[in-house]
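Reopening closed ticket. The problem is back. First fold of the pair:
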Amino acid sequence: MGLEPVLCPTCGSHDVVKHRQSGEGKQRYKCRNSECSRCPFIQTYAYGRYLPDIKQQIVDMAVNGSGTRDTARVLKISRTTVTETLKKRSTPPSGG
């Protein structure tokens, strides 16, 4: 039985250390690469809303005209998650 290497999902670095546990008892990891902006992460998430692929799909569906209810139903996540993801991804207008 060998050890499974943990890679940072943002930069792909092997320089990762254990960083506490989540409330559900899952191991958190932290990337020690100084150029990486990644916060502590869990290797396998139980709920899909945290995955970057799901967040990208939410944005893509919004750009293509899907509503929040439709997006939530297709991706099997809550409407609140869709709304919050889109709020975080929106950029404020530049004043000029």
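Second fold of the pair, where the issue appears:
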Amino acid sequence: MTKTAHRIWILPSMALCIACSTGSGGGTDLGPGADVSPTDPGADTATDAPPTSPGTCTYAGSVTGVAECKEYGAGWNRELAMADCAVVQPGVTGTWDAAATCQAPNALGTCTIETSDARSHVLRSSGDDVTRCNLVRTACLVGAGGAFEPGAPCQALGAPDAAWGAVPFVPPYRMCIEAKPGEAPGQTDGHVCSWTLISGCTEAGRRFEDYAYCPDVITQRPYGPSGATATVENDPRLSDATYMAEVAWAASQVDACGCVCCHKKAIAPRGPANWHIDAPGIWTDGIRDSGLALMVGLADSRALGAFPPAQNNGFDRTQVGLPTNDVPRMQRFLQAEWTRRGLTEAYGTSVPPFGGPLVEQLSFVPDVCTGGEGVEADGSMYWGDIEARYVYVLAAGAKGPVVPPNLDTPDGTIWRMEVPNVSPPITTAVYGQVSGDQRQVVPASGPPPALVSGTQYYLYVLIDVGFPLVRCLFTAP
């Protein structure tokens, strides 16, 4: 069937709170019910439109959290467009306009969606709020199944196959979309809501890759392909239907969470990192003994971060290393594998903590600054001439920040400022002030408390998440 197109322009909404917290740190939550208002489409430009133009439709987008404008193209007529605009999204009524095109400058990006009903469309997002670039892109690629082309403000979005460290860390964001065809409605006002973070999970029984964006997850951890031990041919466990059902269930738990982005051969961009849930035979055979120590909860993996289950569709990885919404069942499954291998608790607890440099950052104890780093009397900050994305001023006894969602804003954070992943990093800052694309995370609103002269504070500056630049104690002048 011939495919045609219409356009949607997603306009900025000043009413939307885009810095909603996960409860312990950064992350953009744009779930159902976000307070958004359609931008006034302006004066009726029908006199400039061809008589047969199907027009445009403006409305509050339920996924992106911004006002949207849908530009209808070939395959539509006015009657069809006006009917579509009346219920442009489930529960959403738009405002139809006779203009042939949407007038929306400063596009964040374009989303081209091809369908088989001869009424395809193009979505365009507008505005200059670069913190929405990741969400708008994922709403296109995952939510709408389209092809995304970033606009000028979002040109710095990373390539889908970029390696960790090659592009900036993509901060967590939560997207809520309708369930895929054939699946039950979502559990959040009928939507499926998922955090795009390596420790994030979608709803049980669904696939993370269908509701979040794995290329963003790849930016959040070191990743590289490596081989895995295969199941021995004719292994008797393969004939045990009860056991194999548990193997499949455990794989489905992984499939619902961000770790699948590196541990599923079908989607890992350069091949799976050791074990993978789509391996032939029994996928757990590919897990190294040290990795199994993490999974059963004997090896320390706190530095990797974890969501509270209530914020993560019920999935918990604080008691076992694999996120699960049924901790006792997962414990039984993993412990059985541990016992089958003849491994001991002593071995498990001897495995070094997981997290590489994150482990050191979690336990780092700062010394006094020796190179003039700190905050001057006028608020100007100095940390050298190297570009940075995250700047913290903490109480002298605070722990340093590590990773989201629960370790990036430690107790004792007085001021936290960051630069979005799509914006250029900075070399200077002023305490308590933000400009350009800079974003203050702590305090959530208003200025931070004035620094007390003669009091010691902890300056922590990161090139990016996981890459500390300066972390030392200074005394306020």
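Update: turned out to be a display glitch only; the data is intact. Confidence is low (pLDDT under 50) at residues 1-25, 32-47. The longest strand covers residues 456-464. Please close again.
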